[in-house]
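U., I forgot to send this yesterday:
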Amino acid sequence: MRWVSAIVLLVTAACSSPSRTSGSPVVVVVPGPVGAYASVTVVAGARQLTLTGDARDRVVPLVGARSFTPSEPMSTYGLDQPQAVLTYRRVDGTGVELAVGGTTFDHHFVYVQRAGQATVALVAADRLGPALAEVGITHPPPT
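Result:
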């Protein structure tokens, strides 16, 4: 019984160690608040729609799980021919364009890339789903 107590003590100490990190930092793909943007538009082929309500609120601010510098061709991420483009038009007239690529192998995340940036970010598919559905784009459910 004494060895069981020792194992519990070691596991507890390891889990509460101050050197452990609680996860990777959030990646801000498009900062908020919603009021900073005059409009958010999603375009997919010939379909274009200005987002309102919940669909807009889910993409402002838009945060990702992580970002990375791609080591594969952009076609690997579906960003060579994006399935959609989100355009964030700020109140001051400036804007941000975001290319939306394919999903990860398990369909939990979508690859996105801001215009003019080399990095690619992973955004939760359920976060982008309502905005993309507005223009007829749906993804398979996560596996």
